[in-house]
């Protein structure tokens, strides 16, 4: 499964990059395949391991922010691995055609 999620601290002002970096650090240290862009962090793995990483990422932001917003989208597709890469390869192949 691939989960794309965004963790946003609320009540801490406009500059939230430091808080977001804490959450992304949790994802990167998980060892699961992941990718971060300007809007979301995507992480790939089995349900329990991915959701545990999301929970830890939220928790690290909760430690410093009075309120946290979580947006999550999941692609639940048993038996598929390396979806983060293969999905983009398919799109790139179509773009170059």
Task: Label this structure with key terms.
97 residues; alpha+beta; Alpha-Beta Plaits; four-stranded antiparallel sheet; 3 helices; globular; MTH1187 family thiamine-binding protein; UPF0045_domain
What is the topological layout?
Blueprint: E1 2-10, H1 17-30, E2 34-36, E3 41-44, H2 47-62, E4 67-75, H3 83-96
Antiparallel strand pairs: 1-3, 1-4, 2-3
Protein name: MTH1187 family thiamine-binding protein
GO cellular component, one term: cytosol
InterPro entries: MTH1187/YkoF-like (IPR029756), Thiamine_BP (IPR002767), UPF0045_domain (IPR051614)
Domain count = 1
N-end to C-end Cα span: 28 Å
- The top-level CATH class is Alpha Beta
Give the low-pLDDT segments. none
Beta-strand portion reads 25-35%
The SS-based structural class is alpha+beta
Would you list the SSEs in sequence order as H and E?
A: EHEEHEH
Rg from C-alpha positions? 15 Å
Q: What kind of sheet is the major sheet?
A: 4 strands, antiparallel
Mean pLDDT over all positions = 94
The CATH architecture can be given as 2-Layer Sandwich
| Share of helical residues | 40-55%
**What gross morphology would you assign?**
globular
Biggest sheet, spatial arrangement of strands:
2-3-1-4
The name CATH uses for the topology is Alpha-Beta Plaits
Compact summary:
This protein has 97 residues and is α+β, with helices and mostly antiparallel strands. The protein has helices at 17-30, 47-62, 83-96; strands spanning 2-10, 34-36, 41-44, 67-75.
């Amino acid at each position: 499964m691939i989960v794309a999620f965004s963790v946003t601290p609320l009540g801490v002002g406009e500059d939230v990059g430091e808080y977001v970096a804490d959450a992304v650090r949790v994802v990167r240290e998980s060892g699961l395949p992941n990718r971060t862009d300007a809007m979301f962090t995507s992480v790939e793995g089995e349900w329990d391991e991915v959701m545990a990483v999301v929970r830890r990422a939220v928790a690290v932001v909760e430690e410093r922010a009075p309120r946290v917003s979580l947006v999550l989208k999941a692609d639940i597709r048993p038996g598929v691995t390396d979806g983060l890469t293969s999905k983009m390869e398919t799109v790139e192949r179509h773009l170059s055609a």
